[in-house]
Amino acid sequence: MAMIWGLAKLAGAFVGALVIFFIVSISSGALFSMRGLDEPSYVVTPEDDAAAAPEETQTFEERMAQADIKAGERVFKECRACHRVEEGMNAVGPSLYGVVGRDVASIADFSYSGALDGTGDVWTPEAINEFITNPKAYAPGTAMTFTGLKDPQDRANVIAYLESVGS
Ligand code: HEC
User: Fold this and answer.
1) Residue 128 CA: which ligand 1 atom is closest?
2) How confident is the model at residue 57 (pLDDT cuts 50, 70, 90)?
């Protein structure tokens, strides 16, 4: 009988220890997660702001300086629906052979919409960059029904690719 009581006490002590262990671990877990809730206010760093607005981190010149022609050739697939880079080969849009530095709307056998006429004389890299960011905003009424390339490095890469073909 005494032995059974002894065992029962032991079991009771064991259960008690277990209960204390759970209480401690739950409350320390709660403390831990409370700290976790506070954390975001410390984590907002300039790097995070930069990631949210990639456009402001680098100038167009810097992006051109690090542009990747091979990557630009892949981006050009989006243009290839309407453009060729071979000389004299017009499609939905005019041939883009040597377009960097070329006079605006100057392919004689392509019938332009007229919307590009007031935008400038020469397709500088900067002008192409602005045009392909949002063609309709740059040249209202343009026949280039393309929504635009949102990624600034994609634009620099495709311009570097166009520069490499024929100009
Ligand atoms: C849906 C068809 C289409 C797509 C896609 C397209 N373009 Fe065009 N693009 C045109 C048309 C049509 C014109 C002529 C615009 C006009 O006359 O208003 C044009 C004109 C241009 C011009 C002016 C050429 C000149 O001779 O003055 C440039 C530069 C140009 N596109 C670059 C691009 C680039 C780079 C891409 C890909 C990022 C692209 N386009 C995607 C149809 C397209």
Assistant:
1) 29
2) confident
